[in-house]
Amino acid sequence: MLVTGGNRGIGRAIAEAFVANGDRVAVTTRSGGAPDGALDVRCDITDPEQVEAAFAQVEEAHGPVEVLVANAGITADTLLLRMSEDDWAGVLDTNLTASFRLAKRASKGMLRLRRGRIVFISSVVGLLGSAGQVNYAASKAGLVGMARSIARELGSRSITANVVAPGFVETDMTAVLTDDQKSAIKAQVPLGRYGTPREVADTVLWLTGDGAAYVTGAVIPVDGGLGMGH
Hints:
By secondary structure, the chain is an alpha/beta fold. It has a single domain (2-218), classed as NAD(P)-binding Rossmann-like Domain (Rossmann fold, 3-Layer(aba) Sandwich). Helices cover 46% and strands 14% of the residues. The protein has 8 helices and 7 strands, in the order E-H-E-E-H-E-H-E-H-H-E-H-H-H-E. A 7-stranded parallel beta sheet has the order 3-2-1-4-5-6-7, with helices on both faces.
């Protein structure tokens, strides 16, 4: 299986969960630092040639990619009127276009195998929206339409495509928030706390296991109830 952005945060927790499960795991990183037991593949997912080279490396080491978790993502937050073309294009290219590129390449091997699991890591922001995150929210919402289209297109070959939408999770991205900001966020979450990367990883593990063989085109929130109703 292949996880993008697997050197820290949610991606690392996902990779570690699969390693602990006994799976053959590869992760893409731009600067290294894969978890122990995982194949460390250097790759900028916005570069089509690097993506092709990464899949060739993984396939040589582990065989066809049967599980793809498209997790790598970036932010470039600013208000709409201040958002530059580069702010928009950079986030969409990494979060949405690269996910399309990865899914397209992975599906080639899955179609030959007549089985496969694709999981896109979205965000509660993609469903609720967030001031100052027009680009990020659009990229994460786009993953839902993409997953559901793939689910319809490839379902007859026993390939599933699903979305996991984390809420506020304890990672480097949320560590920079002030105490007041953290308190305000927790006040909006029915469970009254942040999630952990492992809780997201466990959901991904379930989605790619035998117990979720009949789940496809789904959006699974792991957000403490913050985005319920979507």
